């Protein structure tokens, strides 16, 4: 695990973060490394100051451009599911958004590759990583439906946006044994789905109903 360097950024609200972690445990999150990272990751730096009093509530919150920062439970759950396959060297994240999930992952895996279709959201996420001196996350402004072929194949791919069906290009960018975790389905009917690539096929596991923003096509300046 790579601890964050948090000197000088006002790491207040440790008690509220600890309460959040207690709730995550109650909801079934067990991986100690994940819980520790959730306890030490400053979610309040990822949302508008006007909403920062809600930073450690277990809810999604608006981050502009019609997008949301994911609910802490789902960030912890997805991270735990990916790590259950063993240590991760390189992970592709689709939908940087504000960068909160990228920061959580960056502390638990060797390298994170994060793509986002809305340029200004990703710019801000990049700035936050610089502020926190995180240097194992690389960003690309692109349509995540196509993955990031030049950097693949990946140990894991995680998406924070829901396609109606799983883009085949993403499966092609998984290593054998690699895990693809994403919400799949139309609004109101999404299921968190995990595909594990095997030597001779793909194993599919449906985890639970979820509610993510839709995966859109193309990019936005
Ligand atoms: N990971 C973020 C969640 C952001 S919400 C967090 O930690 O809170 C999902 C993000 O996916 C949005 O920012 C949205 O713009 C982005 N997105 C949607 N479709 C996409 C696509 N095709 N390619 C890349 N990003 C996409």
| Annotated CATH topology of the domain at 60-209 | Rossmann fold
Which percent range describes the beta-strand content? Answer: 25-35%
Spans with pLDDT under 50 lasting ≥5 residues? Answer: none
- H-E order: HHEEHEHEHEEEHEEEE
**What's the total helix number?**
6
Question: Termini distance?
Answer: 34 Å
Which CATH class of the domain at 60-209? Alpha Beta
In total, how many beta strands?
Answer: 11
Assign the CATH architecture of the domain at 60-209. 3-Layer(aba) Sandwich
Description:
The chain has a domain at 60-209: Rossmann fold, CATH 3.40.50.150. It has helices at 14-26, 32-40, 72-83, 100-106, 119-131, 168-172, and strands at residues 61-64, 67-69, 90-94, 111-116, 137-141, 154-159, 161-162, 174-184, 190-198, 201-210, 213-214. Helix 1 runs antiparallel to helix 2 (32-40). It is an alpha/beta fold and 221 residues long. The chain has a seven-stranded mixed beta sheet. A two-stranded antiparallel ribbon has the order 1-2. The chain contains six helices and eleven strands. Strand 8 and strand 9 (190-198) form a beta hairpin. The model has no long low-confidence stretch (mean pLDDT 95). Bound molecules: S-adenosyl-L-homocysteine (SAH). Residues 67-70, 94-95, 97-98, 100-101, 115-118, 121, 143-145, 160-161, 213, 215-216 line the site of S-adenosyl-L-homocysteine.
